Amino acid sequence: MESIGRYMNQASLRERRRDLRKFQTRAEGILWSKLRREQLGVKFRRQFNIDHFIVDFYCHALKLIIELDGWQHGSPGNQEYDQRRDAYLRAKGYTMLRYQNIQIKYELDAVVQDIMNNVERLLLLEKTPPNLP
């Protein structure tokens, strides 16, 4: 299934996405309040699925994924899963940003600034013509 340039919200995952939005973590709610309504100049969606993965936040225009990691991501099994998942999505052309929930609590301004820097970088890359020989 081709995923670049297409929305991938599958009906089979609709209930899971809805539950994730309904029962979001505190950190997800705080970050969403900074991302929603195009506050950073681009539209983000939350709990969006790409292929068989549900990502926390997604900007389709830039193929940018933002993931928030809580305590459960610290276990070796989950770290390995996250690495495989990230590698798969990067291979499909997506940019991945990961932050810890604790960063949202104590370093929110720095996280938002980092996201803004990445959005600006990706927008600039989008407008830069390829080098011709």
UniProtKB/TrEMBL annotation:
DUF559 domain residues are 13-119
Judging by the UniProt lineage, the source's domain of life is Bacteria
Matching entries from InterPro entries are given as: DUF559 (IPR007569), Endonuclease_DUF559_bact (IPR047216), Restrct_endonuc-II-like (IPR011335)
PANTHER family reported in the protein's UniProt record? BLL0828 PROTEIN
Q: What is this protein called?
A: DUF559 domain-containing protein
